[in-house]
Amino acid sequence: MRAGRAKHVWFWAFVGPAVAGLLCFSVWPMLYSLWLSFCHYEVVAPPRFIGLRNYVYLFRHDAAFWPSVRVTLVFTAIQVPLSILASLALALLLHQPVRARGWWRAVYFLPSILPQAALAVVFGYIFQADGGLLNRVLGLAGFAGQAWSSSPTWALVVLIVMSLWGFGYPMVIFLAGLQNVPRELYEAAHIDGAGAWARFRHVTLPLISPVLFFNVVMGVIAALKVFDIAYAFGMAQGQPIPGGPARATLFYGLNLYQQAFGYFHMGLASAMAWLLFGFILLLTAVNFRLSRRWVHYAD
Amino acid sequence: MRRRPELWSYLAFALVAGAGFWWAGRSREPRPVHGRTVITWYSVITPLRDHYEAQAKAFERAHPDIEVRILWVPDSEYNVRLKTLAAARQLPDIFLSGDVWISYLLPLTMDVTAYVRRDAAEFGLDDFFPQIRTAMQHEGRYYIMPEYMNLSLLYYNRRMFAEAGLPEPAGRWTWSDLVANGKQLTHAGTNGRPDVWGCSRVENWWGEWLIYVRQAGGKVFTEDGRRCLLGSPEAIAGLRFYEEKSSRHHFSAPAGFEPRNGFVNERVAMIVGGHVNYWLNYNQMPGLDWDVQLLPAGPHSRRGGELAMAGYSIARTCRHPEEAWALMKFLTRPEAVAEIVARGSLAVRQSVAAANIRGPRRHERPRNLGAAYAQFEFGEPIPRHPHFIEIMLQIVQPEIDRMVLGQLTPEEAGRRAEAAANAFLATFDPADS
Amino acid sequence: MHRRSTLATAGLYAALTLIALAMLVPLGWMVLTSLKTQPEILRSPPAWLPASPQWVNYRTVWEGFAYYRFFLNSLFVATMVIVGTLLTCCPAAYAFAFYDVRHKNLLFGALLSTVMLPAQVTVIPLFKGFAALGWVNTYLPLIVPVWLGGNVFGIFLLRQFFRTLSPSLLEAARLDGASEWEILWRLVVPMSLPAVLTVVVFTFVWSWNDLFNPLIYLQNEELCTLPVGLLYFIARAEQLTGGSTGQIPWHLVMTLATVMTLPVIVIFAIVQRRFVEGVAASGVKG
User: Fold this and answer.
1) Does the beta-carbon distance from A281 to C116 stay under 8 Å?
2) Sequence-distant contacts of B240-245: CB under 8 A, at least 24 apart
């Protein structure tokens, strides 16, 4: 009995700070921003309740809201599958008997942990229309260069490429998943005469479906929250406010930051934040629901 | 026995961590030293940084009881950070201000009318150009002490004009002269596409297109600031000229292909608008033979070039307004204005302007200083509207971007910009903030 | 076992090499550019290679632009964040791994679910709160949340690892009279060094690279950390050389970018094996 109570004391002493942090830095701000989303709050004066007007303005009048939703969804829809495919393909390559596997793995992983702000600046320089590395290499190969970062289509493509460059996280997780697949299963399948594709489809894929699911969920959440690369890229392009050209790189997170800390429409920005949060929750729930159909847990 | 070293290590850890927190939380608010009053001064990072630092030192020598601390911030972040500091109740005492920013920053700005009236003779209120004296005020009250100004001008490369066998731009030029000369100055490069352009085109910003809109008779807002007027036929005519510089007349680079550092590298022969802040850089480029002229006139008006005054304001929360006011007077006294003008800028004081035109001057260029000051007559401040910057950058500019990219016609761009701005104005009442 | 043809092997290595090159070219271009002179950058088109490497750029940036200050600021914040992470994550992970308390899993789930909570949702109230406390323009908003278990990922990763340890070890230590606190720091943590190292590196990278929070809370140039400092530098450099018609000194910008990425690369090179395995563990067991 005494030992049991002591354990309780230790438990709460050990998790106490984390629980306090949870309450102070997640739960309270979350609820407070929900309240602010129904307020007119521009910092100068205290919040004033205005009901749903922020939401109505966002949905019906704000010129930047829908474009930023579109940019973010397009980015997510293209970047997440590409990044999953690329990282899975690379993980499969590395899963072959390869010399110095650790070394290759490290090289591919490295870009994922580098500072995104620095990467965005380097990529901005490489993709310059006038004298940028890419256009010059293309020029040598006889192709006409593009104004990559000034064209709405290409600017988003550049950001997608830049973010693909960091597929290290999903790749490493896939690789670990692949290593957990028992070798005997492959050999059994091989003896059964299954081809490479059939082995992948019927042995590998079901067995790594949990990590695939994990990567998809995390990838989608990360894609919906993009801020750093868009902000730094815009700054490196010398845009008066990042997000251009013509809102082509105005990611939702960037739009929210500008509404909140550029123009101090804090109430409006809180409404945007809650819409994002709601969307992430919804999407994750849908993902989990769908996952019952295709994710196979071993135990 | 076992406990002792452990206790020591806990103590040492607590000490180090405590020191870390002390450092992390140490207030960076300036603390007065030996009873001196500290005045914080918020400034953008500019090529004149050394000048301002010298000014601060000189001021401290003249006022031993005051200490000046300058906080530097990048131009593009300036407004945002100032408002953030206001939200955090950490506003500096004086900050860079100007008639572009004043209506946006008005809630943070102290009314200095009483000081201006009291010291008018001492600092020479009448020495400022009349237009500048107007720009110092908002609804009849004084808020800004002016330091320098920018006027939109026509910048051109003399060598490129001479090589093309063209006479230099004249003060009576119109848009068609700009087009005709611009075309002759545009040259193809090795790959057959133009490599040298007759005229630059400023993207991502209202700097250039607003000139054409106003010269074509258009306006951004109605007088009361409650409606946007960019969808009017006049405004659209201005937008069209801006767009056709590249798409129809081909003397400006298409979107995104503006040569980097074009004017400095002599790959662009003319600039419409420009900024006096670049004079310093132009003069640092050896061999760059440049000059200025009055802006070409539009179909409706010669007016419409931007007149922008830059100066200083005191924060409403300032606890030492008398000392801050002394610093503002010091920064805008004739000698300080003359120093900025000598490095390359336009004077807000008539006495300094007159001496500058007469010479001698530190820099030979621009030779045609007379034209620069003559542009005064045609310069117009941008609308005083609390949401001007936000509306122009956040709401209007994306439509202009799309027009430049060929995705919208000038008509569509103007109308869409107007509709979006009006939707914003209907929700965010200027009276509200 | 079947043998692959030499052709397939060659193809495999060719593919691996090509992809590795694609990974490294931007970094290489960054370093190359950082070693050029201003005229080599401004030339149109710029020079491919520096005529002679300009190591002086590093000195210019370090001293002339007082970049060491941004560097030290970043280092300070990262250190405080790492210490705070270890101090709160280890006990919390230990408690979640070994104690059987009612609602434990519910609490753990609640903590974990904050990973989904976008920073954008909490930033406005937090800014308001920190501003009211007078913490804007101090490092406290970056540090204090971490000292209160803000690094949920760290808790998660450590708990995963702790759970692989045998509870009988703990019982043996308890019988020896060791307190829970001692068991945690003298037994469990030393036995879990790989996981702890992973968490430390993760935390370092996360703090070192963070742009969003310093951008909001550090308004004074002298307080800036590296990512904000880099963007400041671009803005400043542009001002120094004349705005949008002026010249960004890309060679110096790239020097800064190199200074900023180098510590991450070095640390990664040292611990990459352990670190990558830690990352893998986080996904596979999650």
Assistant:
1) yes
2) B240/B410, B241/B175, B241/B212, B241/B216, B241/B298, B242/B201, B242/B208, B242/B209, B242/B212, B242/B404, B243/B403, B243/B404, B243/B410, B245/B179, B245/B182, B245/B199, B245/B201
**pLDDT tens per residue, range C104-133:** 889 998 888 888 888 888 999 999 999 999
| Complex prediction ipTM | 0.85
Residues C30-44: pLDDT tens digits? 999 889 887 777 666
Residues in B 138-177 with any Cβ partner in C closer than 8 A? none
Per the CB < 8 Å rule, is A67 touching B426? no
Interface of B with C in 24-83 (CB under 8 A): 24-29, 44-47, 71-77, 81
Q: Which CATH number fits domain A64-294: 3.30.70.20, 3.30.70.100, 1.10.1040.10, 1.10.3720.10?
A: 1.10.3720.10
**Residue C113: inside a domain, yes or no?**
yes
Residue located via tokens 């460059």: A165
The model's pLDDT over A198-256, given as tens digits with 9 standing for 90+, comes to 888 888 888 888 888 888 888 998 899 888 888 888 877 767 678 878 888 999 999 99
Residues B10-22: pLDDT tens digits?
888 899 999 999 9
C197 is in which domain, residue-wise?
Answer: 66-285
| Type and span of the H or E element at B39 | strand B37-44
| Binding partners of A (≥3 Cβ pairs within 8 A) | B, C
- For residue A43, the chain B residues in CB contact (below 8 A) are 83, 86-87
Nearest CA in chain C to A129: C45
Q: How far apart are CA A229 and CA A231, in angstroms?
A: 6
Percent of chain B clearing pLDDT 70 (strictly above): 96
Q: Which of A43, A57, A64 sits opposite B394 (nearest CB)?
A: A64
**Among the partner residues B398, B423, B433, nearest to A42 by beta-carbon distance:** B433
User: Per-residue pLDDT tens for C16-33?
Assistant: 898 888 888 889 999 998
Q: What is the pTM of this model?
A: 0.87
